[in-house]
Amino acid sequence: MRQSPIIHWFRRDLRLRDNTSLHHAIQQNAPILPVFIFDTALLNAQRIGTPRMAFLLSALHALDESLKGYGSRLLVRFGAPVNVLAELIQQTKAQALHFNRDVSPYALTRDEQISRELIVPVHGFDDALLLPPNDVLKTDGKPYRVYTPYRNVWNKIPKPAVLETVFSSQSFYPQDALTRRSIPTLEELGHPKTIATPRADENTAQDFLNAFLADDIHHYSKSRNTLPISPFTTPRPNGTSYLSPYLRLGVLSPRECYWQARDAYASTPSHAYRESIETWVNELTWRDFYGQIVFHFPHVLKRDFVDTYLDLEWRNDASELTAWQNGETGYPIIDAPMRQLRAIGWMPNRARMIVASFLTKHLLVHWLHGDIYFMQHLIDGDTASNNGGWQWASGTGTDAQPYFRIFNPIAQSKKFATTEYLKHWLPELHGTDDKFIHTPWLAPQPPKAYPKPIVDHDQARQRTLTTFKLARGEKNNV
Predict the structure, then answer these.
(1) H or E segment at 8?
(2) pLDDT tens column, 104-131
């Protein structure tokens, strides 16, 4: 008679290495039934993007191949998770359900229902973040709203170790009596063909991490603001780890990133290198911070974190939003990254800040439009980090950029963008003299195929200052 399995429900943890829930399930000496559910509620969600879905499917195929090495397969199901899991429990006489928790409002509500309604013990584990949301709290038990004091406490808390899990052919439950469904194609999920995405397997993620830690991390504090054409090129460009897509789907563990960075810190005598490593580790801290913001303040996904600008009169001009989306604003530093986003599903972090500032501060388009558009096109689109970045840029979030700080797109372009980067993504500028690459409309013969700026920086800046002051009640200063 077959032993009752423990169901491990894969979600944002698509790996076998250092997987908290899977590790604890293995320790119970019961066979594991590995399951992934295409949640129909999420498949129809507004923030679902085709490029990220393609990356997810790649990750699922890679996970399935890893499981084959132990004589198992990834069991794929479609539907409402509570119904799918209840049926599997009945079919297999499963003794428990294990999964790794998420921080989104939808996931929390869904998991509460599952814990309440299933007839077996349900065990959720903290795995997606280095430190769970309730581990970093103020002395009064309330969550932090500002990054720096959060980071100061975060730095003092010991981080969980990387888990070493031993698998064998006996680790997994036989699936011969269960109906198998193949991992679907994009078309079967109702998505059109999309851009090529990188390999989404654990080995590729480890290769990216190892290559970054071998050298690039030592220069990260200086190179992180560079604008590489693509991180897919060989050799990889400096300035980015390109680990965010793998962290987003849990193909890579944040604990491995943290402890390997700490090893790199300990092994270098260079003070400058250590500063760069600390700068990169701070990005992991920001990731945790935004995760706990969404966990404790779920309203941020629908409206401003602060109440100050709830009455702000956003212009939300549809034609200008479209020009921004298509990379046709007339500002190369805006248009090149936006076209890069559509072409490869990614853009450098500095570019994300610049284009977000332009949409919200120059065009006065509400940040939600940008938030959703990014989630629909980014391979690494993470609900919490993306929301935090957009609210920071618009001046409406936690630790936000002040409303009066408005990036000058020309100055930002001259400081961060190379001619190579701009001309690669904007072929209309190939004949433009490099002297005018940041301001092609000022060239003696402006490129005919490239649009003129849709707004004047100085005029747009003044309009935004006036609008924000009115929303703040500073009428005497308008």
Answers:
(1) strand 6-10
(2) 999 999 999 999 999 999 999 999 999 9
Q: CA 337 to CA 346: how far, in whole Å?
A: 9
Superfamily for domain range 6-127: HUPs (3.40.50.620)
With beta carbons less than 8 A apart as the criterion, state whether 429 and 440 touch: yes
What class, spelled out in words, does domain 318-470 have in CATH? Answer: mainly alpha
Which pTM was predicted? 0.95
Of 82, 84, 62, 83, nearest to 74 by C-alpha is 62
Query: What are 8-54's pLDDT values in tens digits?
Result: 999 999 999 999 999 999 999 999 999 999 999 999 899 999 999 99
Amino acid at 98: H
Q: How many CB atoms lie within 10 A of CB 458?
A: 9
Enclosing H/E stretch for 39: strand 32-39
CA distances from 429 to 350, 426, 436 (A): 22, 6, 10
Question: Do 338 and 351 form a contact (C-beta atoms < 8 A)?
Answer: no
CA distance 154 to 183: 39
Q: How far apart are CA 171 and CA 30, in angstroms?
A: 7
| Secondary structure in 3-state letters for 261-285 | HHHHHHHCCCHHHHHHHHHHHHHHH
Give domain limits for the chain: 6-127, 129-160+202-296, 318-470
36 by DSSP, 3-state: which?
strand
Residue pair 197/388 in contact (Cβ under 8 Å)? The answer is no
Q: How many CB atoms lie within 10 A of CB 76?
A: 17
**Catalytic residue numbers?**
283, 286, 314, 349, 367, 390
Tokens of 270: 């260079």
CB atoms within 10 A of CB 397: 23
129-160+202-296 sits in which CATH class? Answer: mainly alpha
Contacts of residue 98, Cβ cutoff 8 Å, sequence gap at least 6: 6, 7, 8, 9, 21, 22, 24, 25, 123, 125
Instruction: Please provide the DSSP assignment of 427-477 as one string.
Output: GGGTTS-GGGSS-GGGSSS--TTSPPPSS-HHHHHHHHHHHHHHHHT-GGG
Assign 328 to helix, strand or coil: coil
pLDDT at 233: 66
The answer to whether 120 touches 99, Cβ cutoff 8 Å, is no
Q: How far is CA 154 from CA 86, 137, 158, in A?
A: 38, 9, 8
